[in-house]
């Protein structure tokens, strides 16, 4: 009898284990960035990646300041990363059919045009950092808007409509360049066969069928970076399209939420899998950091750094040099959530300068060790304004400046001053955000390459006088896209997902830090006015990027 009972229990337990294993599903994330294309697969239970594949992308630079990529090459690499990752899953005894949905996250502002009938690009993708459009920006800055009597009134009018200020980064100026300089584009618009979109639009259209019924959409976060979407209605704005002289006949993508089923994969190992998430990369990182509440903020530390602050359901139009953007919209019938965005031009590139130009350190890890070997900077401050200051100062005549040097200054002090300078710049942006919103930031969530350094984060928390939170799972951008896709089909809810983090708490008193901040402000003053060849207000037109 006991043997029969044990056999029944054994079978029952194994059945339960099989059912439990079967309940685990997976969500894929296409992460199409500036330097690489990746596909990651996340577990529905742990929110952790179980498999991935990455391929570097190639930039094309025909002239100084021009940055392009081949759209067909990017599409091919996306498909390859999906295929290779699915093979890795099979080796883990996970079938590709276990992937329930796919999300897409992408480099923002990058602009593409292609033929509706052939599916072929009409030109290379013009990448977000491309600067060829500055003359076009200058031209439209001089164009007057009815009832706007001063440049400041015109700037505020545009900013209220789209949340942005005129800058070569934004998609509209790349689109205008394509229309004016590529005859095939102008002709295709006349014949109503020119499809326009950002990188997400190109990928989703192709992956859902292309010329054979592909879905031509974008999401609110990517559309909010074109300068053609009304930040309030979340629709293409006729007045903005008219102001920027975009000809009729251009085929715009439909603006959708970040989280809904857009279409299904039409070929490859994930055929028939729904694509149900779409979100720009910086907003995806905000999602991946679980910054779902107003007042929460994240900062990505890479070459520069991008800080996004969740402002809730109402857009805050900045008066302190920041951008207003859509953070996310999780479903057709949900309210959009907005964010303020500010950037620091130089972060990780300052450490690269120490390594490659001054040759006083051989790696970021060595720099971290040296910076940690001293308690402070011995009174020096380093403002890494190599090409001017961005938010909140917007001074093109600023240059890199080191103040307070003495005979006792060592390379270790300079290392620490470099890290502190990046942190003080972050504090400057945070203070602008708090001034715009009237609410203090309670904690700063961080990601990006520099955030792997405990030394850097300890300095950051002391400089900013608030807790700094680093996720244990660093793939926050891809996770944000996966979450958007999973929310759409009910795998997760915004209330059920939790992040696992390390938190850094300040050790310096606020009084000590205030005195240091006063010295930082003096260093900022001394960094301004060095390049008198630049116009005094060069950066006023793109304050906030």
UniProtKB/TrEMBL annotation:
Q: A Gene Ontology CC term for this entry? A: mitochondrion
Q: Give the first-level EC class, as a single word.
A: transferase
Which UniProt keywords are listed?
ATP-binding, Glycerol metabolism, Kinase, Nucleotide-binding, Transferase
EC identifiers of the protein: 2.7.1.30
Q: Which Pfam families match?
A: FGGY_C, FGGY_N
Reading the lineage from the top rank, the first entry is Eukaryota
**BP GO terms, sorted:** glycerol catabolic process; glycerol-3-phosphate biosynthetic process; triglyceride metabolic process
Family indicated by similarity: Belongs to the FGGY kinase family.
Protein name (record): Probable glycerol kinase
């Amino acid at each position: 009898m006991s043997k029969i009972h044990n056999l029944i229990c054994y079978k029952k337990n194994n059945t339960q284990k099989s059912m439990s294993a079967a309940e685990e599903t997976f969500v894929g994330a296409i992460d199409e960035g500036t330097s690489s294309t990746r596909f990651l697969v996340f577990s529905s239970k742990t929110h952790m990646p179980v498999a991935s594949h990455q391929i570097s992308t190639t930039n094309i630079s025909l002239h100084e300041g021009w940055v392009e990529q081949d759209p067909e090459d990017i599409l091919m690499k996306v498909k390859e990363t999906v295929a290779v990752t699915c093979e890795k899953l099979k080796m883990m005894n996970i079938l590709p059919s276990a992937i329930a949905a796919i999300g897409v996250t992408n480099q923002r502002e990058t602009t593409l045009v292609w033929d509706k009938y052939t599916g072929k690009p009409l030109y290379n993708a013009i990448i977000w950092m491309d600067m060829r459009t500055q003359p076009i920006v200058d031209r439209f800055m001089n164009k007057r808007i009815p009832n706007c009597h001063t440049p400041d009134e015109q700037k505020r009018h545009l900013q209220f409509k789209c949340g942005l200020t005129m800058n070569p980064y934004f998609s509209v100026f790349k689109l205008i360049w394509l229309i004016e300089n590529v005859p095939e584009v102008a002709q295709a618009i006349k014949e109503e066969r020119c499809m326009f979109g950002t990188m997400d639009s190109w990928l989703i259209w192709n992956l859902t069928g292309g010329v054979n019924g592909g879905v031509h959409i974008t999401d609110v976060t990517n559309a909010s970076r074109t300068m053609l979407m009304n930040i309030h209605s979340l629709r293409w704005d006729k007045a903005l399209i008219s102001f920027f002289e975009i000809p009729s006949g251009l085929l715009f993508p439909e603006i959708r939420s970040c989280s809904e089923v857009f279409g299904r994969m039409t070929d490859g190992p994930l055929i028939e899998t729904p694509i149900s998430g779409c979100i720009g990369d910086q907003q995806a990182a905000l999602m991946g950091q679980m910054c779902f509440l107003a007042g929460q903020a994240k900062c990505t530390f890479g070459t520069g750094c991008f800080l996004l602050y969740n402002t809730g359901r109402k857009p805050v139009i900045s008066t302190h040099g920041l951008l207003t953007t859509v953070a996310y919209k999780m479903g057709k019938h949900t309210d959009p959530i907005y964010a303020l965005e500010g950037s620091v031009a130089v972060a990780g590139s300052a450490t690269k300068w120490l390594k490659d130009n001054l040759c006083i350190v051989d790696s970021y890890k060595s720099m971290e060790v040296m910076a940690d070997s001293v308690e402070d900077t011995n009174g020096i401050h380093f403002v890494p304004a190599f090409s001017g200051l961005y938010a909140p100062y917007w001074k093109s005549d600023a240059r890199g400046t080191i103040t307070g040097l003495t005979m006792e200054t060592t390379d270790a002090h300079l290392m620490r001053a470099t890290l502190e300078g990046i942190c003080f710049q972050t504090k400057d942006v945070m203070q602008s955000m708090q001034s715009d919103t009237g609410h203090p930031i309670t904690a700063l969530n961080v990601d990006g390459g520099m955030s792997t350094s405990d030394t850097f984060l300890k300095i950051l928390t002391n400089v900013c006088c608030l807790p700094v939170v680093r996720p244990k799972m660093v793939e926050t951008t891809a996770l944000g896209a996966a979450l958007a896709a999973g929310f759409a089909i009910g795998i997760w809810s915004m209330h059920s997902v939790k992040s696992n983090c390390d938190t850094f708490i300040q050790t310096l008193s606020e009084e000590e830090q205030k005195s240091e901040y006063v010295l930082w402000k003096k260093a900022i003053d001394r960094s301004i006015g060095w390049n008198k060849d630049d116009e005094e207000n060069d950066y006023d037109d793109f304050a906030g990027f």
